[in-house]
Amino acid sequence: MILQENEYIGAYLMITTFPEGVRLGNDRLIQLTKSSAEKIKVLLTNEGEDSVLRVKISGGGCNGLSYKLKFVDAFKRGDIVVESSGAQVVVDSKSAL
């Protein structure tokens, strides 16, 4: 389970404290539009309140970068949590490079 403390903003759960090795980033790492943030919030209601959207970026060779999105229930050491447009996403430290 990823929550230690949390805060509700409307019907959306915001994680406010993180396990050791997980830090808060800023929206220079990833920026969400208001409509994408709202869609994430809607999808999270189906996933459960302890879930967060993980964004992973990997090299795609000649095709450019590849983006993978997945709802997860736990953070990993080195993760960076970003709040943008009222939604939270988690990015692993390798993808943040």
Helix and strand layout, with pairings?
Layout: E1 6-9, E2 12-15, E3 23-24, H1 34-47, E4 52-59, E5 65-72, E6 80-84, E7 87-91, H2 93-96
Parallel strand pairs: 3-6, 4-7
Antiparallel strand pairs: 1-2, 4-5, 6-7
Account of the 3D structure:
The protein has 97 residues and is an alpha/beta fold. The protein has 2 helices and 7 strands. The protein has helices spanning 34-47, 93-96; strands spanning 6-9, 12-15, 23-24, 52-59, 65-72, 80-84, 87-91. The strands form 2 sheets. Strands 3-6-7-4-5 form a 5-stranded mixed β-sheet. Strand 1 and strand 2 (12-15) form a beta hairpin. The longest helix is centred in the middle third of the chain and has 14 residues, at 34-47. It is globular, with a radius of gyration of 13 Å. The N and C termini lie far apart (27 Å).
What's the Cα radius of gyration?
Answer: 13 Å
How do the helices and strands follow one another from N- to C-terminus? Answer: EEEHEEEEH
What's the shape? Answer: globular
Proportion in β-strands:
35-45%
Strand order of the largest sheet: 3-6-7-4-5
Helix-residue proportion: 10-25%
- Major sheet details: 5 strands, mixed
- Give the class from helix and strand content and strand pairing: alpha/beta
Low-confidence stretches at least 5 residues in length (pLDDT < 50)? 1-6, 8-12
Count of β-strands: 7
Mean pLDDT: 80
**Number of continuous helical runs:** 2
Distance between the termini: 27 Å
